[in-house]
Amino acid sequence: MYFIQLAGAALRKGRHMKIPKYSLVKDTLKAEITTGNFSVGQKFYTEAELIHKFNVSSITVVRALSDLVREGYLVRHQGRGTFISQAPQRKNEKLVHIINQSITNEVSAVVYVQRNSNHKILSELDLNDDNYCIAIARTHSVNDMTFEYQENYLVKELIDEHSDKNKYTQLYDYISANKRICLRDEPYEQSICIEVPAEKHVADILGLHEGEVCVKQIRKTSSSITGKPLEYSLSFIRCEFFKVSITNR
């Protein structure tokens, strides 16, 4: 009963925070699954039980269940019901990149802030060709060595174009403080590859020799509320400053 009351409180809070009800229902159910309240293959709640449990509509319940099925936590069998997936714990696997943790005297600098109308970039941000985004390029250095070069392409609503470019040295902190959006906490898709060789302009910035490689990270961040893209970014990192950590809980 305590768990149901807690979920209900979260839903009431969500009305003020404008968090979709289905998202709160999904996250609550996901927590039940991943913390061991159910065993693999066990039958899950029915839609009617969830409607009563959370005091929400059938549309909200169906949306939450559909997301959990798509993410691999649940499997649905017509005429039989909904069951816990064979391997729900694998969905807790996280892959993150870590810039060398020993860096203590990092210096960041903004290279430019400008409008960008590149078709590929606009399409990644779901913008029409007659629109534009804001491109911000930055470098991150230590001991006079540039170890990372970033190009961030953001929807124009997040950036004040005519501000001093140095305000964007700590870009995410600026957006969090001035636009009340924490990009670090928004959902994103990320891919990592080795750029062989590094593009010339990137190699020049990172101080790489001809033919040397670098790590390339592509990241697309979207709004957790609207689902619309907020940022598309490219990061180029010297290999000796990069590692990957994988955890499975």
UniProtKB/TrEMBL annotation:
Keywords: DNA-binding, Transcription, Transcription regulation
Domain HTH gntR-type: 19-87
SMART domains: HTH_GNTR (SM00345), UTRA (SM00866)
InterPro entries reported for this sequence: Bact_HTH_transcr_reg, Chorismate_lyase_/UTRA_dom_sf, Tscrpt_reg_HTH_GntR, UTRA, WH-like_DNA-bd_sf, WH_DNA-bd_sf
GO MF term (any one): DNA binding
Swiss-Prot/TrEMBL GO biological process terms: negative regulation of DNA-templated transcription
Domain of life: Bacteria
Stored PANTHER family: GNTR-FAMILY TRANSCRIPTIONAL REGULATOR, MANNOSYL-D-GLYCERATE TRANSPORT/METABOLISM SYSTEM REPRESSOR MNGR-RELATED
Name of the protein described by the UniProt record: Transcriptional regulator, GntR family
Record organism: Fannyhessea vaginae DSM 15829
